[in-house]
UniProtKB/TrEMBL annotation:
Name used for this protein in its record: FadR/GntR family transcriptional regulator
Taxonomic superkingdom: Bacteria
Pfam families, A to Z: FCD, GntR
Cited Gene3D superfamilies: GntR ligand-binding domain-like, Winged helix-like DNA-binding domain superfamily/Winged helix DNA-binding domain
Species for this entry: Streptomyces millisiae
PANTHER family on file: TRANSCRIPTIONAL REGULATOR, GNTR FAMILY, UXU OPERON TRANSCRIPTIONAL REGULATOR
Domain HTH gntR-type, first and last residues per copy: 1-69
Keywords tagged on the record: DNA-binding, Transcription, Transcription regulation
PROSITE patterns in the cross-refs: HTH_GNTR (PS50949)
Amino acid sequence: MSVTDDAIEAIKQMIVDGELRPGDRLPRELDLAERLGLSRNSLREAVRALSLIQVLDVRRGDGTYVTSLEPALLMDAMSFVVDFHRDDTVLQILEARRLVEPAATELAAVRMPMADIEALAELLDALGDSPTVDELVESDLEFHRRIAAGSGNAVLASLLETLSGRTQRARTWRGLTQEGAVERTLGEHRAIVQALTRRQPGIAGALATVHIAGVEQWLREALVDGD
């Protein structure tokens, strides 16, 4: 582990231990470097790295502060990395969604207010039976965002919003090229809403798995055919 890594770990531990809390200002650079037994250069590199992933906020002329550490803020750094994806990485993103999103859907079946579930049904009804691919993809993103939020777990919701948005291109491609993709997606969404309405977490999670796995399998086959 490098000296900079040591500095990053030391600051992280101060936050984990509660010594530094969201919104707190870090001690003066000289004081903190002496306390941690680090050079000021190593400390600066650590602060720069932690500011890039939005753990710290460097304010010129004011000091360095711990950010709010809200999940959505921290996930922004992840979205920066995920943006530089290739098609095979999209497969990995879909695989991650297939593993995580059913859990969020199960939680939503227990925790999501009935009014919000009814609003999901209205979102689908507003599309009609023959939406354009762009309309479907936009609705699809909102559909999954609402369910993730309905899980009541802010970390899950932020993670899934980051992952879901990065598969938009694949969803559009599927809608344009796979026969029956629009109808299949609408049918699967309605089935998920029905399970949520009936408060059936196991069924809702299973339906979410099948739904995401369908996109994943289609992309795997499309990439093989394109080789």
